Amino acid sequence: ALSLGIPCIEVDVWLVDGVLFAGHEPQDLSPDRTLERLYLTPLLDILSKANPDTESDKSGKGWNGVFARASKQELMLMIDIKSDGEALWPALLDALQPFRERGWLTTYHYPPAANATGNIADFHDDGSGEFTLGPLRIVGTGNTPIGRVYTQQPARDVFYDAPLKAEWTPALAPMASSKWLLSSYLSLPPYALPPAMRKGAIKELRRYSEEAHARGIKARWWGSARWPAVVRRRVWEVQREAGVDWMNADDLAE
């Protein structure tokens, strides 16, 4: 993904015996396939080489990202939590600490009123706080516990992949997603759609994309056809026409 300049990576994560593993299914997990080994350590190494003066400059304003030719491009790392989200959450926060302490995580700072009483039970964020951008933005999806994302203290540096058809703010959910099967006609592969139905599918998709964009949120659709290749490409074509920001793909070069 990085070699192709793609600024978003999604990884399926499981917590097993206190260790974060990367893999789509339980049978894919093995001792050498940990989140740290496959993703976090390589990213930390890249950022350390790109930011040799981080220890003396923690302002967060002078960082370089993972892309040499686009040094201010943020990378979005999507953590698709597959196991119990509440159990995995503390381990995820701990795993991100090396990035956090170097100022390399995009962070949302709450407005003063959010913590007015100092009691987490009274916490309320209206989305009017301020962002400190970093080279890495973490977005939780799957079984990510939204309550934990919402009430992170003292600031939010893990964000949420919200349902596309609901109302959110970028402070909580910079991305909103929905499964491809919106309705009966959208469940059909594009090549099977008569022209009028194809236009209807694009119109419906575009409406959701535009609503997300109006709130400053990127739109994503997942679960679309992967095979045969002609169907997969037609689905991507419809999504592009509808103004979708992110499309899921396994063969990134394609």
From TrEMBL:
GO terms for biological process: lipid metabolic process. It comes from the Eukaryota. InterPro entries: HAT_RTT109-like, PLC-like_Pdiesterase_TIM-brl. GO terms for molecular function: phosphoric diester hydrolase activity. Belongs to the AIM6 family. This is Altered inheritance of mitochondria protein 6. It comes from Schizopora paradoxa.
